[in-house]
């Protein structure tokens, strides 16, 4: 039997909540080794993936803009903008994600609902705490 090194890769996709996810995967050779027998080599390339959700308020909650922003190596490449109701590619790297996510109507509906479900909800929670704290200070 010949032995080969395990294959290692990075899987990127959407969770069932529509959020970007990723993780390492590996597979073992057919030589009878189990995945724990050998550790995959440490990747030499380094990269940073970030996601940031932002709520921008004007005049209390009268006007709310929700942004869901995705970065690769500190460069924003795609974002969901509630004012537009869709994803916008900011770089060529973000174009395939924006096109795919914009084709998923359920995902877009969930993201559009975040103006109320995420932004306005958290604004009210924070506002009630802030008003209570101001009253305690006298």
UniProtKB/TrEMBL annotation:
GO terms for cellular component: MHC class II protein complex. GO terms for biological process: adaptive immune response; antigen processing and presentation of peptide or polysaccharide antigen via MHC class II. It is found in: Membrane. It holds the Pfam family MHC_II_beta. Its main location: membrane. Residues 16-42 are annotated as: Disordered. It is a single-pass type I membrane protein. Residues 53-127 form the MHC class II beta chain N-terminal domain. Keywords: Adaptive immunity, Glycoprotein, Immunity, Membrane, MHC II, Transmembrane, Transmembrane helix. PANTHER family: HLA CLASS II HISTOCOMPATIBILITY ANTIGEN, DR BETA 3 CHAIN-RELATED (PTHR19944:SF84), MHC CLASS II-RELATED (PTHR19944). This is HLA class II histocompatibility antigen, DRB1-3 chain-like. It comes from Chrysochloris asiatica (Cape golden mole). The lineage of its organism: Eukaryota, Metazoa, Chordata, Craniata, Vertebrata.
């Amino acid at each position: 039997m010949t032995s080969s090194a395990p294959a290692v890769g990075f899987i990127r996709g959407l969770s069932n909540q529509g959020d970007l996810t990723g993780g390492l995967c590996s597979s073992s050779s057919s030589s009878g080794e189990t995945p724990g027998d050998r550790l995959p080599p440490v990747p030499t390339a380094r990269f940073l993936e970030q996601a940031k959700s932002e709520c921008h308020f004007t005049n209390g909650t009268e006007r709310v803009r929700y942004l869901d922003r995705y970065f690769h190596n500190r460069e924003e490449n795609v974002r969901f903008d509630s004012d537009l109701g869709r994803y916008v590619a900011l770089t060529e790297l973000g174009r395939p994600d924006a096109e795919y996510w914009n084709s998923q109507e359920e995902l877009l509906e969930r993201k559009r609902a975040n103006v109320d479900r995420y932004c306005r909800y958290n604004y009210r929670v924070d506002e009630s705490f802030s008003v209570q704290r101001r009253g305690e200070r006298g």
